[in-house]
């Protein structure tokens, strides 16, 4: 059953240099207990999509399209009163950001920041909030959680701060957790621990997770489905298995080809996609990927390719979408 339904999401930022079309007609569903990966390079619209769901797009300069819809448990979130949105955010839909140092308040102890969540959202007494916060820190593998409550963020390592962020995000047992590049700032050993921790938390709490990342290695072993964004539009969407086995869009193939493999030639240069994503968002009436695409044709520069369907909910926005063979 779809817990979150996003339809035709459009987010534009009106800047001094003109409008930036950050998200341009993105649609997706998130089912209960499912893990969805949203993948793309910087500027693909993946983070703005999650901010829009959480009602955190600053307006102005942000503008949400009038035809856009974000439904949580069937209820439209766009247009809700700020107070109601605040209640849903944190309690029902929570988020972990990339850098915990910018999300945690450096002037408050970890304990104060955790207990405040329970006091504000649940009306929990300070004493009980402290007990539950210590349990939360213990659940995410922080040794000596009682002592950690009295620490300031700068006294903890990067991995520990990220665990605090996860504990804070899970404190209210949200139905959906958005994790925006949750392991990018960490070294690979800690990265693996944090990913395993999130999987464990998902098993225990039965929540849905949206992983936002540029790292296909992270989503490969973690997600059920993937949404590949390019210049604010959906380039491809499929089950993770289908997308890795049979990428249909040239952009997805380029992303997959640029992931280093253990059995590749160690002396061969790493593959990359030439050029960079367009500044200012989508490609108007053209395919936004056309300037970088090895399969580009004349029509790609004049027409926007529609999403075409392959098998089993595998879709790709490309005139040359190839669902029939593993084209990596
Ligand atoms: S529509 Fe054309 S330019 Fe765009 S990805 Fe497909 S082949 Fe490449």
| CATH class category label of the domain at 1-81 and 176-190 and 208-262 and 270-328 | Alpha Beta
Approximate strand percentage: 15-25%
Number of helices: 11
Looking at the overall shape, the CATH architecture of the domain at 1-81 and 176-190 and 208-262 and 270-328 is 3-Layer(aba) Sandwich
Structural class: alpha/beta
Instruction: Order the strands across the largest sheet as they lie in space.
Output: 7-8-9-3-10-11-13-12
What would you report as the Rg, rounded to the nearest angstrom?
21 Å
Low-confidence stretches: none
Order of helices and strands: EEEHEEEHEHHHHHEHEHEEHHEE
The biggest beta sheet is recorded as: 8 strands, mixed
> What is the count of β-strands?
13
Shape estimate: globular
Overall pLDDT metric: 89
CATH superfamily of the domain at 1-81 and 176-190 and 208-262 and 270-328: P-loop containing nucleotide triphosphate hydrolases
Helix content: 25-40%
Taking the alpha carbons of the first and last residues, their distance comes to 33 Å
Quick overview of this protein structure:
This protein has 328 residues and is an alpha/beta fold.
Structure description:
- The chain has 328 residues and is of the alpha/beta class.
- The protein has helices at residues 46-53, 82-91, 100-103, 110-122, 126-139, 145-149, 158-170, 188-205, 216-220, 240-245, 250-257, and strands spanning 2-15, 18-31, 35-39, 62-64, 69-72, 75-76, 93-96, 176-180, 208-213, 225-230, 233-239, 307-309, 315-317.
- The strands form two sheets. Strands 7-8-9-3-10-11-13-12 form an eight-stranded mixed sheet, sandwiched between helices.
- A hairpin with a 2-residue loop joins β5 and β6 (75-76).
- It is globular, with a radius of gyration of 21 Å.
- The model has no long low-confidence stretch (mean pLDDT 89).
- The structure holds iron/sulfur cluster.
């Amino acid at each position: 059953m779809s817990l979150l339904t996003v339809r035709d999401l459009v987010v534009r930022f009106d800047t001094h240099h003109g409008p930036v079309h950050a998200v341009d007609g993105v649609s997706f569903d998130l089912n209960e207990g499912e893990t969805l990966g949203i993948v793309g390079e910087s500027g693909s619209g993946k983070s703005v999509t999650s901010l829009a769901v959480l009602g955190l797009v600053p307006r102005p300069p942000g503008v949400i399209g009038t035809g856009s819809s974000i439904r949580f448990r069937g209820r439209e979130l766009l247009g809700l009163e700020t107070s109601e949105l605040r209640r849903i955010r944190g309690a029902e839909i929570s988020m972990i950001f990339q850098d915990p140092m910018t999300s945690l308040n450096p002037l408050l102890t970890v304990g104060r920041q955790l207990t405040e969540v329970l006091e504000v959202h649940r009306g929990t007494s300070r004493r009980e909030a402290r007990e539950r916060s210590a349990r939360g820190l213990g659940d995410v593998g922080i040794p000596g959680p009682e002592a950690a409550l009295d620490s300031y963020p700068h006294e903890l390592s990067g991995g520990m701060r990220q665990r605090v962020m996860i504990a804070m995000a899970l404190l209210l047992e949200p139905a959906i957790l958005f994790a925006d590049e949750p392991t990018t700032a960490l070294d690979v050993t800690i990265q693996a621990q944090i990913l395993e921790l999130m999987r464990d938390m998902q098993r225990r709490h039965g929540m849905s997770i949206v992983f936002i990342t540029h790292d296909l290695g992270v989503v490969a072993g973690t997600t059920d489905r993937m949404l590949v964004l390019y210049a604010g539009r959906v380039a491809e969407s499929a089950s993770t298995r289908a997308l890795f086995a049979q990428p249909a869009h040239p952009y997805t193939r380029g992303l997959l080809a640029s992931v280093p493999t253990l059995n590749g030639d160690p002396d061969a240069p790493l593959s990359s996609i030439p050029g960079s994503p367009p500044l200012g968002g989508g490609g108007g009436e053209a395919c936004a990927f056309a300037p970088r695409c090895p399969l580009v044709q004349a029509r790609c520069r004049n027409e926007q390719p529609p999403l075409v369907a392959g098998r089993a909910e595998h879709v790709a926005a490309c005139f040359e979408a190839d669902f029939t063979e593993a084209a990596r």
